[in-house]
């Protein structure tokens, strides 16, 4: 089981190559292993097809016979005009075994994928994998809650400010932290700021990392008014339930927008970049509805901490884990 978990984690890391170009499907990773060596690998391609299993099995060819397939999400069981059911491809592959990291709650598959593989005489095991669940988090949230996964990014001073009292905010953090932010943008389907941020900064909100420019997310603004060309509008945070095809939403600011999403209970992850400076300026957040200090405790779980030059990054997940998803 230790080896199985290790290969599933490797498949989950591979799946990162698909995000976000695989939308509307999740980024799935698949690895074909034989005698402890990787025979082939695959990830969901741009536009959602071919699926990861199809790519890996095509690359493996006859070498798949007697091998083990590690896949982050249960192979789909439904046939589509866009491509064959992966459960059928797996059943015909000659594999000896399949190990799945996340089951698929989509009623078109939901256990039927593994069942079909077993009916073909191939051993199929479900091994719950935290790494696979994390790699599929946006799609998991989408299936469970009917909305994108929301990541709120805050770039703060030591005293919790996002700008001077004059409004000047570029730049609180250094070059390494800003580069990391661009990498996070590249993993998102859409990015959102508030009307005030759009008016004051006219931000580009694109990805300016070499080789990743094509992964710049859709640009959204929280406003009731008209928006510039190339932008889309949400009138309130709850409008995210109508954001079709968006699995990962990256909220960058400012304070009113961050507060509004927290007040609505619509933040799944916090990225807090903290610079070693004191500003005594504008606070990052306003009142988002806590009426007692006890309500603040136990809401967030630290999942990562790293140094980015002179700045620090802390990642917190809301304590509402999701463990299932789907691929269409």
TrEMBL record:
Its EC number is 3.5.4.26, 1.1.1.193. It holds the Pfam family dCMP_cyt_deam_1. Zn(2+) binds at residues 51, 76, 86. Binds 1 zinc ion. It catalyses: 2,5-diamino-6-hydroxy-4-(5-phosphoribosylamino)-pyrimidine + H2O + H(+) = 5-amino-6-(5-phospho-D-ribosylamino)uracil + NH4(+); 5-amino-6-(5-phospho-D-ribitylamino)uracil + NADP(+) = 5-amino-6-(5-phospho-D-ribosylamino)uracil + NADPH + H(+). InterPro entries: CMP_dCMP_dom, Cytidine_deaminase-like, DHFR-like_dom_sf, Eubact_RibD, RibDG_C, Riboflavin_Biosynth_HTPR. NADP(+) binds at residues 155, 169, 171, 197, 201, 254-260. NCBIfam families: eubact_ribD (TIGR00326). This is Riboflavin biosynthesis protein RibD.
């Amino acid at each position: 089981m230790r080896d199985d978990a290790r290969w599933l984690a490797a498949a989950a890391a591979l799946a990162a190559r698909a995000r976000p170009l695989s939308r509307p499907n999740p980024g799935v990773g698949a690895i074909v292993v034989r005698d402890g060596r990787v025979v082939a690998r695959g990830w969901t391609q741009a536009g959602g097809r071919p699926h990861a299993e199809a790519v890996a099995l095509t690359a493996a060819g006859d070498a798949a016979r007697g091998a083990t397939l590690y896949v982050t999400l249960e192979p789909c069981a439904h046939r589509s005009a866009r491509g064959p059911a992966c459960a059928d491809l797996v059943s015909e592959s000659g594999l000896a075994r399949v190990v799945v990291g996340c089951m698929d709650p989509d009623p078109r598959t939901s256990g039927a994928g593994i069942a079909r593989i077993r009916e073909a005489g191939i051993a199929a095991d479900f091994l719950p994998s935290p790494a696979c669940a994390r790699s599929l988090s946006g799609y998991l949230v989408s299936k469970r809650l009917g909305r994108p996964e929301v990541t709120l990014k805050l770039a703060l001073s030591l005293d919790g400010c996002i700008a001077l009292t004059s409004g000047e905010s570029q730049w609180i953090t250094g070059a390494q932290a800003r580069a990391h932010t661009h990498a996070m943008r590249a993993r998102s389907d859409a990015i959102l700021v508030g009307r005030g941020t759009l008016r004051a900064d006219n931000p580009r909100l694109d990805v300016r990392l070499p080789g990743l420019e094509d992964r710049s997310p859709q640009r959204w603004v929280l406003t009731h008014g008209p928006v510039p060309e190339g932008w889309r509008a949400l009138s309130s945070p709850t409008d995210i339930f109508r954001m079709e095809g968006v699995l990962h939403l990256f909220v960058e600011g400012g304070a009113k927008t961050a507060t509004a999403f927290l007040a609505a209970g619509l933040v799944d992850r916090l990225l807090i970049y903290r610079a070693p400076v004191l500003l005594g300026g504008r606070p990052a957040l306003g009142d988002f509805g806590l009426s007692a200090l006890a309500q603040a405790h136990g809401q967030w779980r630290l999942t990562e901490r790293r140094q980015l030059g002179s700045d620090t990054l802390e990642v917190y997940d809301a304590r509402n884990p999701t463990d299932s998803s789907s691929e269409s």
